[in-house]
Amino acid sequence: MKRLGFAAIVTLLSLAVLGPGTASATVGATLCKANEAPCSAENLYPEETFLEMSLKPGTSLIKERPFEAFEPVNECQGSELTAIAFEGGVERAVSAPLSALSYSECGNCTTTVIAPGRFVIEGSAGTSGKVTWKEFNLEERCGGSPLFPPTKCIWTGEAKGTIALAGGSEATLRLEEVEAPLQKGCTQTIWTAEYVVNSPQPLFVVGDTTRLCKTASSPCTESYEKGTKIKSALKSGTKAVLKDNFGSVTCEESEIAGELTSSGTPVEGTVSSVTFAKCNCPTTSPPIEARSFTVRWKSGNDGSMTLPGVAISVACSGAECVGFAGVKEKVSLIGSNPAVIKLEEAPFAKSSGAGCGTLKWTAEYEVTEPKPLYVSLNRS
User: What is the spatial distance between Cα 43 and Cα 121, in angstroms, rounded to a whole number?
Assistant: First the structure.
């Protein structure tokens, strides 16, 4: 079988991982019955919890059209909504599709809800959550007479502006100068409203973020920050094993080094080097710029890891197997003094080489720098 050279590995990896910029990180969230972080299992609201809301008594939903000469302000005295919340977590937002949405007593305007959309709830300051309202489609008609047709607005897509879910014994949802994007019809419309969460009560939003900490504590009082160097080497008495359909390659020496580029939400960094030595077959890892790592809290002082962009090539008896596009499962960072990076038959996202199958990586790396190192769950 023809052996892939260094340039071919670089090309394969570039096609697999290089592309548009990475999306902004998500601040995870959980919906909790108590003001605590992390939210304990007994206080965590379950999957498919119904969030029922209505306008705060004595208030109205205000729709302002600053560029509209005819009826620049419209108010609705009533509005109700129901959302079904699905559990979030660390760097995972709560998704809450709306099952019902209504507007009433809106003067000479009538709003038809074609699609209510869904809320995405992320952690924010204290016990509040940042809410994004997307995938909705609303149609409003105002006025109209035998001589003049009614004005018609169609709003669809994702709302812009501040929507905040403030936790408490009676949580509230506030729309603060929120702009609903127009598909066609009237001019720019700005919405302002405050809803009360009638059920469930109480309701708190706990933002979950990961930190690499100098102490075994949650929340972390002293974390490792951007620029921190990470160095690790095989745990004494162990070997790195790279397994494919042809068998296993073992290495007596191996190191991983990198640097933190983000201290949290999630923890991210670059991988500067991956080396292997004293192997029973030639083993290399090309220095691709796309190599990186992420860490997310899992439990206790431990976290799960991914190694996007890392590639490894093993060659035995003229046959070569290349694992590339990174390792995205079965990798753990076990917090301790020293911490351990543990790979348990961690499969590469993609593999190349006739008949070699999926290349899998097993090893335990002792983190020699920094020490100690723990994975901590923090409230944002």
Answer: 18
Confidence of residue 13 (pLDDT cuts 50, 70, 90): very low
**C-beta separation of 50 from 230 below 8 A:** no
DSSP 177-246: EEEPPEEESSS--EEEEEEEEEESSSBEEEEEEEEEESSS-SS-SSB--TT-EEEEEEPTT--EEEEETT
Those residues whose C-beta lies under 8 Å from the C-beta of residue 45, and which sit 6 or more positions away, are: 30, 31, 32, 33, 85, 87, 200, 203
Q: Give, for 331, the enclosing helix (H) or strand (E).
A: strand 331-334
Instruction: Quote the tokens at residue 151.
Output: 């004005």
Tokens of 294: 């992420």
Among 321, 306, 191, 300, which Cα is nearest to 244's?
321
Residues 6+ away with beta carbon under 8 Å from 285: 273, 274, 275, 276, 310, 311, 312, 313
The tokens 């023809």 sit on which residue?
2
Residue-wise pLDDT for 144-194, tens only, equals 777 777 788 899 999 999 999 999 999 999 999 899 887 777 778 899 999
Measured between alpha carbons, how far is residue 51 from residues 22, 95, 335 in Å? 32, 12, 37
CB 290 within 8 A of CB 308: yes
Q: What's the whole-model pTM score?
A: 0.64
Identity of the residue numbered 249:
V
- What tokens were used for 113? 């809800």
Placement of tokens 């809290």 in the chain = 297
**Dihedral of the alpha carbons of 244, 245, 250, 255, in degrees to the nearest 10:** 0
- Residue 361 Rama label (left phi>0; alpha psi -120 to 50; beta): beta
User: In Å, what is the CA distance from 273 to each residue of 16, 233, 276, 309, 312?
Assistant: 19, 11, 10, 12, 11
Strand partners, 255: 233, 275
